[in-house]
Design goal:
Blueprint lengths: L7 H12 L4 E2 H7 L6 H13 L3 E5 L5 E5 L2 E2 L2 E2 L4 E6 L5 E7 L15 E5 L2 H10 L2
Parallel strand pairs: 6-8
Antiparallel strand pairs: 1-3, 2-3, 4-5, 6-7
């Protein structure tokens, strides 16, 4: 891994990702980050985190990129290859803590995965169920 200089911006982004229970889009990070950091710097930090294995990125069904700390989303230790779930109601994307088990045909080698499920999350499903009564 390349030795990178620590900056206040990097520390702020990493702290925000580490404390989040969901994967965050660039826009969500930009809205929540303190101190305010310009968009280009946030993109550069996120991409370097992914290059260095600190974070992972998943592309949601909406085309946005979402980021979370690799192997630890919201305090849950996650397997390397896990599903992500995007809620069509509240628009959140969360890491599922179940490992994806699959095999590739002979001659193929997995380098990354982007396993995305789409539907209604537990919180929205429960809220919808309660409002039906």
């Amino acid at each position: 891994m390349i030795k990178r200089r620590n900056t206040t911006a990097k520390d702020s982004v990493l702290r925000l990702l580490s404390n989040s229970t969901k994967a965050l889009s660039h826009e969500a990070i930009a809205r929540q980050i303190e101190p305010v950091i310009d968009r280009t710097t946030i993109y550069r930090i996120l991409n370097r985190f992914c290059e260095d294995g600190i974070a992972h990125k998943v592309v949601g069904g909406d085309g946005k990129q979402y980021f979370s700390v690799r192997g630890n989303c919201g305090g849950h230790v996650l397997p390397e290859h896990h599903f992500h779930f995007r809620c069509t109601n509240c628009q959140t994307l969360e890491c599922m803590d179940e490992e994806v088990e699959f095999s590739l045909p002979e001659g193929y080698r997995l380098e990354a995965s982007n396993c995305l499920l789409t539907g209604t999350c537990r919180k929205c499903s429960l809220a919808s169920h309660r409002s039906e009564y």
